[in-house]
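Worked example

This section walks through a single chain of length 348. The input is the sequence exactly as stored; nothing has been trimmed or padded.
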Amino acid sequence: MLKRVLTIVFLGTTFYCPNVILAKQANSTKAPPVFVETYVAKTKSYPDQIMSTGTLISIPGIIVKPEISGRITKIYFNSGDMVSEGSLLIEINPDIIKAQLAAAQAKLRLNKLNFDRSSSLYKTHDISKSDFDQAQANYNSARANVDSMQAELQQTTIVAPFAGKLGLTQVNVGDYVSAGQSIVNLQTIDPLKVDFSVPEFYQSKVTLNQQVFLRTDAYPGKIFHGSVEAFESLINQNNRTLSIRANVPNKEAKLIPGGFVEVALQFSVQQLIMVPQTSIVYAPDGNYVFKVVAGKAEKTKVILGAKDSNNVVVKTGLKDGDVVITAGQIKVRPGSAVMVAGNKKPAD
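Given that input, the structure is written out below as tokens.
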């Protein structure tokens, strides 16, 4: 009997000891760290702005047209020239008008002599008042005719009314042009204007000299600067928007009137913390991120703000310098040990 009891005790001890050892080993073995990618949250300056689309316009900008008809005898410019105010552009044959002016001036001289003679005779009562009035009327009419012919002669020479860039000429020497016919475009290049509109909600934020930024597909990656010059005195009732005009310096003449541009109207600059959207875990009870603190994951609730295609503003929950996990959260639990495998760079 004693032998049987000792055998049972021995067997029990044999099976119990290894199990105890294995349990202790299992408890002493730690879970391996989770490899994650992180991002260091930093406070940065972000503009408070609204995007719109606009059209570049030239003020002043005209199509040069003659005021009289005639044959073109001289062209003083080449297509695409930059011209200054008063530069000669076109001469329309002045010979006929010059001859007519010479005849008018001769007639004026004759009427001036008759008027002077009539004045003397009228003073001595040798002619009647009606004869004197007729002489005076003839003289005034001849003088007006000369002034008219001189003005018409000036119209045979077309000059640039302001400095700007010429387009493509639509006439040649020898062409007969009619009054009002298009000759060439003349556009002010520096500065240009841009017209755009914003929803009426932003009316109270729009002020004169407010900064605007322009982008165009013609120059990818380049930003042009301007400032608000004026805005409409009433809201557009069709689409409830406010029309705005901005002044855009264009010294390099890269922008061309009529062009389409993207416009950013900047209201202010804010100091915000923005993190990649991949760091946010969206849940029914609220949004949160995992911060890395002393090598472990710490679940942190956050309140979000505006976002773009890559990043999102964090209003509360993070501070400058916090390290947040941007990849690998699916394997992370609060308190999990983590190993940083890489740092995510901020996206523009």
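What to look for: The longest strand covers residues 260-276.
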